[in-house]
Amino acid sequence: MSVTPTVDSTVSEATPGDFLALLKPRVMSLVVFTALVGLVVAPGSIDPFTGFISILCIAIGAGASGALNMWFDADIDAIMRRTAKRPIPAGRIQPGEALAFGLVLAGFSVATLGVMVNWLSAAILAFTIFFYAVIYSMYLKRATPQNIVIGGAAGSFPPLLGWACATGTVGIEPVILFLIIFIWTPPHFWALALFACKDYGAAGIPMMPNVAGEASTKRQIFGYSLLLAPLGVVPALLGFASPVYGVLAAILGLNFLRHAWNTLRMADGDEQMTPAKRLFAFSILYLFAIFAGLLIDHIAAPFYPVLGG
């Protein structure tokens, strides 16, 4: 079976909302937020206009990645229940339109970021779009159950991107932020895959539960969670976040482990999959709270001596 969508020359009657859906706005919002945190916590200062252009270009680049992913995945999106109503499989947008839309946005975001901010951040953005749209979407997703592990790197770049926009450099601090998202990605998506494995199986996507089975997937989820819990505390240990953040990260990490442990103990073949669903929901809260904690901690840092008397 060919994996390349057929380009239909028919003009669609798509609405602006359909093109917005191509950008995967929920994913884009997380990308924008983590990039903003990377930009704000970076040393030095960046003027508001440059900061706005940086975040705008990162958002557009993320949207371009989503559009290119939907263009290529139109065939499997049509099979899966949770994606069948997306604009391309639903017939509201033609594949060729989505491809052109994604390519224009990608080129615009990279070029604008390079000219208006710096070329290091533009290069990282270009690589991120290429990694997600080509390496992950066109190869890894359909080729290996490690698709989420390796492909997760694409979603881990935003804080590194924000840091590069603010400083023109990359250091150990943004790499730690990259690693937090990178290690978070497998337990997050494998929890989803546990209760959506029939959908993935029908589409022929080799997600871990479909290939290695539930028991192995649950063990791997717990293993990655064991790595994630202490990793979230590392910003405080390295000194670019306060002990207050460290306590918050430790509490969040222990709760992540609790949900992962409950998922590990879940009986194989459990149709309700309640622990996995709870882990998936908490994992979203975890990542948001970790980065919100970093952001609030950075803003509040000047007041800590005052609060301490």
From TrEMBL:
A Pfam match: UbiA
One GO MF term: protoheme IX farnesyltransferase activity
Membrane topology per record: Multi-pass membrane protein
Top enzyme category: transferase
Taxonomic superkingdom: Bacteria
Coiled-coil positions: none
Record-linked InterPro entries: Protohaem_IX_farnesylTrfase, UbiA_prenyltransferase, UbiA_prenylTrfase_CS, UbiA_sf
Subcellular location field: Cell membrane
Reactions catalysed: heme b + (2E,6E)-farnesyl diphosphate + H2O = Fe(II)-heme o + diphosphate
GO biological process: heme O biosynthetic process
Membrane spanning residue stretches: 27-46, 52-72, 93-113, 119-139, 160-183, 244-261, 282-304
Pathway in which this enzyme or protein is active: Porphyrin-containing compound metabolism; heme O biosynthesis; heme O from protoheme: step 1/1
GO cellular component: plasma membrane
Keywords: Cell membrane, Heme biosynthesis, Membrane, Transferase, Transmembrane, Transmembrane helix
Record EC number: 2.5.1.141
The protein's role, per its UniProt record: Converts heme B (protoheme IX) to heme O by substitution of the vinyl group on carbon 2 of heme B porphyrin ring with a hydroxyethyl farnesyl side group.
Record's miscellaneous remark: Carbon 2 of the heme B porphyrin ring is defined according to the Fischer nomenclature.
Family statement: Belongs to the UbiA prenyltransferase family. Protoheme IX farnesyltransferase subfamily.
Protein name (database record): Protoheme IX farnesyltransferase
